[in-house]
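okkk here we go again. third time trying to get the pyridoxal-5'-phosphate bound version out, last two times i messed up the smiles copy paste (missing a bracket lol). double checked this time i swear
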Amino acid sequence: MQFIDLKTQQEKIKTGIDDRIQTVLAHGKYIMGPEIKELEQVLADFVEVKHCITCSSGTDALLMALMAWDIGPGDAVFTPPFTFIATAEVIQLLGATPVFVDIDENTFNINPLKLAEEIDRTKKEGKLTPKVIMPVDLFGLPANYPEIDSISRKYDLLVLEDGAQGFGGSIEGKMACSFGNMAATSFFPAKPLGCYGDGGAIFTNEDSMAEKLVSIRVHGKGGHKYDNVRVGINGRLDTLQAAILLEKMTIFPEEIRLRNAVASQYTERLKNKVITPFIPDGYVSAWAQYSIVAESSDHRIEIQERLKNHDIPTGIYYPIPLHLQTAFTKLGYRKGDFPVSEPTSERIFSLPMHPYLTETDIEKITGLV
Ligand SMILES: *Cc1c(COP(=O)(O)O)cnc(C)c1O
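finally!!
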């Protein structure tokens, strides 16, 4: 059994993918070909945001958004420690400081109460200037944006949604990647909407930001390519990846529906055995991962071993919270600083999740948990 089955999906859309690739090979515009603009329009319409700027990866999407706001040394960016390294990595790359905020124990997303406390503490301490809140839509579930929005207004902070796992989710019908001032997503193959390589996108309703992002994406270009008005990066998405994503978008809404059906079946069969995912009323998850919490780390090992013996892969997202990563030692955090993230990382693990899991697969997996 596969953790994420991209093969069944490919068989479904093979002709369309082949046609799209042949079209790119025929026109030969491998860099910023017409598929880029076409995809950006499709994605912006899907999310219902004015601008979509595609780019080279989810990491670069986050980086470019922070660059567009001129985030740098002395700035504090508030983000959870229970996420993928890229979330906090880009903050440190720009010389700014990640200020970690513990997660909510039910949703695994940033805890708004603790967020407000951490902003107050940082302001009082007076060493850093609070600038950005970077919530993460972990495992596909949008963070608590209604609460985060009111906090950002109260403290006059910017919000960057890390929607790398969230694309396709929603809150009361409002799509993930439309929250905050800017949002970033990833098209890494294993994400809910994946291409066949690296890719990402940034979403915003602000014209001035969109213009700046387009410049940052190509080495800070001004009026033309060899007029450089700022320092940027080589952050373009390949035309071939855009072509593949256009074809994948034709089945994406249906795939989100199927992922939700799989998740419901999992939860129905597992709710009396382990802690199953909590989805607040009005929220829809994109189910990047279906993650469950065992009673202890030994219990987790025991279940993972049993599944492995039956050829069922599992994954641990994430075994080490970011504040305990060597790369962030200089931030000065210690074990015990985040009482929810730490035990969660010791007990959580993820089951196979993709739109094409059958009832038989689900029955087999859940019978072994
Ligand atoms: C995958 C991921 C990223 C980075 O995306 P890439 O396309 O791999 O660079 C950032 N944040 C989170 C939460 C992710 O899961």
